[in-house]
## 1
Amino acid sequence: MGKGKITVVAAILIVAAGAAYLLTREDDQTSPVVATPGDTPDTAAAAPPFGGPVDIEDASAAWTYLTANQLAGPGASVSNAYPGSMPHGQLLETVTLDADISGHSGTLIIKKNFAAPEGETITADQVSADPDTYLTAVTIMFQREAGYDDGHGNWFWAKYLPDGSLDKNGADMQLAGRVGNVEAGAGCIGCHVNAPGEDYVFTN
Ligand code: HEC
């Protein structure tokens, strides 16, 4: 490959990474995508490693697994809700198992987040009796093979709304993949890095 071609390829990669980062509104395809000339490959690589097509595909496979095994979705039962705290729910349920999803096998931790309507409180019995009414989100951690995210325990993270669609962050990025940024103290990883035991899991 000639030097010119390499430059072109590098430029395309930078623009693509920049576009992924700047395309904050999925439904607004017309927003101008500006390639910042000063961007170096390093800054491009620093674009958040989540919310991309592969992450969304993985999240979709995981949701299919959850519903097929009645771990989430309509009719999934909840028997062990316990009082929770921000940013998860007023009541939580955590289930841990070994899972095989799309050729990946590892520990899968599912946390269901329940909340009462504004100003009300709910009990674990109410949640067990009618989980679908109070469910606000399903968050998962799925431990992947070495090399997936070695610096952060190799966890795949996802946050679903009760209907199985992915929740989004303030920049409209879907919350699936290596969600978060330790340096910025943001996202799933930015908070779970504080879990005791350095395995990113609080409820050990
Ligand atoms: C501000 C801190 C914070 C953020 C941000 C956060 N979590 Fe958590 N998470 C916690 C705490 C604290 C617990 C333990 C709650 C409990 O069960 O009492 C927890 C528990 C969990 C668990 C159960 C396993 C465990 O660590 O105990 C899962 C799964 C989970 N979180 C997923 C997520 C996902 C996915 C995201 C991002 C979309 C996320 N969390 C963002 C604080 C956070």
## 2
Amino acid sequence: MSEAPVPSRPKSAYNNWISVIGAVLAVGALFSFALLVAMGFAQGDKNPYLGILTYIVAPAFLITGLAIMFIGAWLQRRYALRYAGQRPDRWQLDLHNPNQRRHLYILGGGATLFLLLSAFGSYQTYHYAESVQFCGEVCHQAMNPELVTYRKGAHARVDCVECHVGSGVDWFVKAKINGAHQLISYTLDNYDRPIATPVKNMRPAREICEQCHWPEKSLGNLDMTWDHFLSDRKNTPYSVRLLMKMDTGKDGDLHSGIHWHASPKTKVEFYATDRQRQEVVWVRVTDSEKGTEKVFRHADFLGEPPMDQIRRMDCVDCHNRPAHDFRSANDLVEEAMVRGTLPTSLPGIKRQAVQAMIQKEITTAAEAPGKIADHLRGRYKDAAGVEQAIAEVQRLHAENIFPERKADWRVYPNNIGHKDWSGCFRCHGNTLQTAAGQKVGASECSSCHIILAQGKGSDLASLTAAGLEFKHPSGSYDEELSCADCHNGGIQGK
Ligand code: HEC
Ligand code: HEC
Ligand code: HEC
Ligand code: HEC
Ligand code: HEC
Ligand code: HEC
């Protein structure tokens, strides 16, 4: 090593250490990319997260590797130009140099390991990224409430990606970017609790839902019954049976009645000031055939809505919980009472069960069973049926209330009706008007449904086709109030 360094002229500017490392990275990434593409083909490429790995993560590494290669070559060339013939190349590979040779062996070993690891890593990551499993289970802390509610819904067999990621290049890319963002926030543990609605990033619902549903199909009425219990000692039952006016078919229109909003001919657009679309302050209806337009607005909203925030109403503005229906404590308890899984022989069980579920002291899922048991034992001691009631309320809690994630019906409104949330009354009712003072149509109780029967026992034995006046089960109240001013899915009044 005593000889004077021999100035050398690299054959290629890429013949230097920095570029070699960059090349190793790039080849590794290319290798993973090829593997991921192959896996995508094999699996039908249904999984958006596989897409993220394939089209975002692997290319990012590839580009970084290539960039390092070019930087190495650039430095090498600059160095060679400046010191041409005077000094040995700083970064050049020289296989005659034992020191460099040793480095090369180490690098070679490292590169092989890197290739193996990236192959293994992509395979493993892919494995975890399998559709519903990844979306719901691996990200379980983040997504678990959605998965649990989804499994109980009518769409439990519809993959997450069917609704959340559409087919077609543009939606694919949107979902990729959005998905990558979610992965990053999940990794950094700074995702929202509760997770905010992704509605803006979803495909237009008609495209999703109409793969399976034909809105034209629900011509006519839909007969629905709700069974309730009051929160008195007797658990007094109260049922209401409604005929929903789905599509009255008037004027030869394809849609009228409730599914009128979903008719291809109708265009209802609205602007809500909040992300959850609860505070609607502006609505525009365009009749494309007649060429007419009507704008309804809230008295306090004077400006124009921002163009990019105007949303065209579609299926998920009413059916916003087709897959993640976080049921309210009130509804869950009543349903269990109807089924008989919660013994109605326990006096005031409606009230106690709801209260046990919504105790403020429950801050983690793990402490729920104990606190629920304490609450109910405190009220009923060892009355018959207590153990059954405790087990049932614990189950209902576990499947519908997720304290750590702050996810339950209180933060995820269901827009289909109007009892516990504003729902239809976001637009219907008295708050929105045209300049001429016209209110959004269908604000009478009987415009959307008629009451066929209400009450209990023999009250329900006969139906009134013409419809009944609503008899509120706890007596009359100020007509100016809307149902959701009092009802919130917990226990009302008293
Ligand atoms: C039938 C369609 C459909 C399917 C299937 C579906 N979702 Fe959703 N999801 C929705 C809609 C619609 C919303 C928006 C609700 C809103 O804005 O009110 C949503 C919202 C969400 C949210 C935001 C939080 C919330 O509850 O609003 C998450 C997270 C989510 N979905 C995850 C999933 C996962 C994970 C799966 C699969 C296990 C899945 N989704 C399957 C339609 C679907
Ligand atoms: C892959 C097919 C498929 C897609 C896509 C789909 N659904 Fe459904 N949906 C079904 C099936 C099947 C049922 C009946 C399930 C049952 O009877 O339990 C159903 C039931 C329903 C019901 C009534 C039953 C209930 O309990 O909710 C509504 C409302 C509904 N879907 C709305 C939607 C909306 C809104 C979308 C779009 C966001 C959608 N569906 C997308 C297949 C689908
Ligand atoms: C204005 C709100 C609204 C819009 C928009 C809307 N629906 Fe509905 N839909 C309802 C109501 C209300 C019911 C009655 C069931 C209920 O109250 O739960 C219903 C019922 C249904 C049912 C169940 C019918 C049955 O026979 O059981 C399906 C399926 C359905 N809608 C699909 C759709 C699809 C698909 C779209 C979009 C093309 C859509 N809906 C748009 C309000 C709406
Ligand atoms: C985003 C605002 C909005 C929401 C939310 C909304 N509607 Fe409407 N709805 C309208 C507008 C606007 C009209 C047309 C009013 C007019 O022309 O006077 C309308 C009309 C109707 C009509 C009369 C349709 C006909 O045959 O002409 C019915 C019935 C109806 N809505 C039911 C519902 C039900 C049920 C819900 C809740 C599940 C609901 N609406 C939610 C905006 C809304
Ligand atoms: C804009 C349409 C619309 C108007 C107006 C309307 N409703 Fe409803 N109502 C609905 C829909 C849709 C549902 C079904 C909710 C669901 O599927 O969970 C419903 C459900 C109900 C229920 C059953 C809810 C339950 O949980 O027991 C009652 C009771 C009821 N409405 C009473 C009334 C009364 C009283 C009025 C007048 C003050 C009224 N509604 C006005 C659309 C309307
Ligand atoms: C002024 C407050 C108030 C308003 C407004 C109100 N309710 Fe109630 N409601 C109550 C109280 C209090 C009870 C009795 C609660 C109990 O015994 O559990 C009750 C009970 C009920 C019940 C049976 C028990 C339950 O919660 O399931 C139904 C169904 C109901 N109301 C529907 C409605 C509907 C629909 C509207 C709107 C059209 C409405 N209420 C408006 C206060 C109100």
